């Protein structure tokens, strides 16, 4: 959920970035979101042989960490992009100190350090759904029915495109670009090929973009246009049209943030006490059993 990831980013102190879900995988759609710092591919994990070589000794400028914490691949995928976008966003005190502390560490040591970070662990755990019951494991359920999902990141760094997967020993080089090329043009065909491959047998996958904070982007452009000293009536009219569009986009971002905030509050809330009391009240009014029988008849 982009709202969860965006709040997670803000919780650990990062400024200037947000997450957006992608519904179209073409260059034009991605380019409209610039600046894009990295892409996250979510898919249903399955055992498969990957013979692509990994970079066992990546350059110091590239941040890569092994995943050492169970069920934290989403947080780690986002962290991989943020750390490699450190020249374009404000990492905040926690991540800045973390980078300086771990920049000479091995990928394994970085993974261990992530697990020991109180700020990151607290931020990650804050989005866990409340689980007031300890359920006995259903022995009748076949293990093959269990679904495990995994997140991997795609990032540009110093002319090279990398796939970062915390379950692998190192990053994988997937392409190159020069200073006159847009890395998004290079990475789109690679992800399209992977999506096509998964589409043949699986529909449960998703693509997210970690990009610049759109609210800040619109606010900055509005401020710059407002300060322009223009006397030509035609240019003034064009500016006003552009300002109107920007204000509409800004309002949409404000409404989106409010929606995300409300959804995240609901996500954290424990509804079990309410449901238990609702069932009690229905039983007291002799309305529970009729509802149960009605539900059975609809099955």
What is the typical, i.e. mean, pLDDT?
86
Number of helices: 11
Main sheet: strand order = 1-6-2-3-4-5
Record field, number of beta strands: 6
CATH homologous superfamily assignment of the largest domain: Peptidase C12, ubiquitin carboxyl-terminal hydrolase
The structure class reads: alpha+beta
Distance between the termini: 31 Å
Principal-axis shape equals globular
Number of domains: 3
Q: Give the biggest beta sheet.
A: 6 strands, antiparallel
Q: What are the low-pLDDT stretches, counting only 5+ consecutive residues below 50?
A: 134-145
Work out the radius of gyration.
Answer: 23 Å
Q: Give the name of the CATH architecture of the largest domain.
A: 3-Layer(aba) Sandwich
CATH topology descriptor of the largest domain: Ubiquitin C-terminal Hydrolase UCH-l3
Helix content: 40-55%
GO molecular function: cysteine-type deubiquitinase activity
Protein name: Ubiquitin carboxyl-terminal hydrolase
Main location: nucleus
GO cellular component, one term: nucleus
Give a structural overview.
There is one protein chain. With 299 residues, the protein is an alpha+beta fold. It has three domains: 2-127 and 146-212, 3-Layer(aba) Sandwich (Ubiquitin C-terminal Hydrolase UCH-l3); 217-268; 270-299, no CATH class. Helix content is 49%, strand content 14%. It has helices at residues 2-11, 27-31, 73-84, 92-102, 107-115, 118-125, 183-199, 214-227, 233-268, 272-284, 288-298; strands at residues 17-21, 36-44, 149-157, 160-164, 172-176, 205-212. It has a six-stranded antiparallel beta sheet with strand order 1-6-2-3-4-5, with helices on both faces. 23% of the residues are buried. Residues 134-145 have low confidence and may be disordered. Residues 1-212 form the UCH catalytic domain. The active site is at residues 73, 150. The record marks 165 as: Important for enzyme activity. GO terms for molecular function: cysteine-type deubiquitinase activity.
């Amino acid at each position: 959920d982009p709202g969860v990831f965006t709040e997670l980013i803000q919780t650990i102190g990062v400024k200037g970035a947000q997450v957006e879900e992608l519904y179209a995988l073409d260059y034009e759609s991605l380019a409209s979101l610039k600046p894009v710092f990295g892409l996250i591919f979510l898919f249903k994990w399955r055992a498969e042989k990957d013979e692509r070589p990994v970079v066992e000794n990546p350059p110091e400028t590239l941040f890569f960490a092994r995943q050492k914490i169970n069920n934290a691949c989403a947080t780690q995928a986002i962290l991989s992009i943020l750390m490699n976008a450190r020249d374009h966003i404000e990492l905040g005190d926690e991540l800045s100190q973390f980078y300086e502390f771990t920049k000479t560490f091995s990928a394994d040591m970085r993974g261990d350090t992530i697990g020991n970070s109180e700020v990151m662990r607290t931020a990650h755990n804050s989005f866990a759904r409340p689980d007031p019951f300890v359920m006995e494991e259903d022995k009748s359920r076949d293990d093959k029915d269990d679904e495990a999902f995994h997140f991997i990141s795609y990032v540009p760094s110093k002319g090279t495109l990398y796939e970062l997967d915390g379950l692998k020993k190192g990053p994988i080089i997937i392409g190159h670009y020069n200073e006159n090329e847009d890395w998004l043009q290079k990475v789109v065909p690679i992800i399209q090929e992977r999506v096509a491959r998964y589409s043949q047998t699986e529909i449960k996958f998703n693509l997210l973009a970690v990009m610049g904070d759109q609210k800040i982007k619109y606010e900055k452009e509005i401020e710059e246009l407002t300060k322009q000293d223009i006397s030509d009536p035609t240019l003034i009219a064009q500016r006003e049209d552009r300002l109107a569009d920007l204000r509409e986009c800004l309002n949409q971002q404000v409404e989106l943030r409010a929606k995300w905030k409300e959804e995240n509050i609901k996500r954290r809330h424990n509804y079990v006490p309410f449901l238990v009391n609702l069932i009690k009240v229905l039983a007291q009014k002799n309305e529970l059993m009729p509802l149960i029988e009605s539900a059975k008849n609809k099955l």
